[in-house]
Amino acid sequence: MKVILIQDVVNIGHAGDVKNVADGYARNYLIPRGLALQATPGAMKEFRAQRESDARHEAHMAARAEALAERLRHVTLTFEAKVGEKGRLYGSITPADIAEALERETGQQFDRRKHIISEPIREVGAHTVQIRLRADVTAEIQVLVKPAGEEPAEGSEAGTG
């Protein structure tokens, strides 16, 4: 029986291949488990159309990811945090904090585990953080951490006197 493989099958072939297999193997194993379809002319046409649709969708998603990556390259996030004497933060700026700030900045949703490639930031200063948008598309953003509650410069204090 001729079948169209939907998924890779060991010792048979890869997804999309049309293979000739034993009737019983196709009816009792491949087709019930969703690994293959019987290769009728209608099924072949439908499978080709689905693959073309998937390819167009994939290209569209890749283009969107590239556009977002380009937008993110110009983003600088600024955080204020309490700082100890040696410039180390009390606490840290976590990937969740970065994801939340990116959502506010861009309107896109970011998952701290899936998108943000960074350890928590524990020091004041400028840091570069990678954002993974897809397996093949990453963007780097700048994260600036400033000390919170810095005293205003002399002469700018109001109401002293």
Concise structural overview:
The chain is an alpha+beta fold. It is 32% helix and 30% strand.
H-E string: EEHEHEEHEEEE
Q: What is the molecular shape?
A: elongated
- Per CATH, the superfamily of the largest domain is Ribosomal protein L9, C-terminal domain
Structural class: alpha+beta
Describe the protein in words.
- By secondary structure, the protein is of the alpha+beta class.
- The protein has 2 domains: 2-62, Ribosomal protein L9, N-terminal domain (Ribosomal Protein L9, domain 1, 3-Layer(aba) Sandwich), CATH 3.40.5.10; 68-147, Ribosomal Protein L9, domain 2 (Roll).
- The chain is 32% helix and 30% strand.
- It contains 3 helices and 9 strands.
- The chain has helices at residues 23-30, 41-72, 95-106; strands at 2-5, 18-20, 36-38, 76-81, 88-93, 116-117, 121-123, 125-134, 137-147.
- It is elongated, with a radius of gyration of 27 Å.
- Residues 152-161 have low confidence and may be disordered.
Helices and strands in order:
Layout: E1 2-5, E2 18-20, H1 23-30, E3 36-38, H2 41-72, E4 76-81, E5 88-93, H3 95-106, E6 116-117, E7 121-123, E8 125-134, E9 137-147
Parallel strand pairs: 4-9
Antiparallel strand pairs: 1-2, 1-3, 5-7, 6-8, 8-9
Q: What characteristics describe this protein?
A:
161 residues, alpha+beta, Ribosomal Protein L9, domain 1, Ribosomal Protein L9, domain 2, 2 domains, four-stranded mixed sheet, three-stranded antiparallel sheet, elongated, disordered C terminus
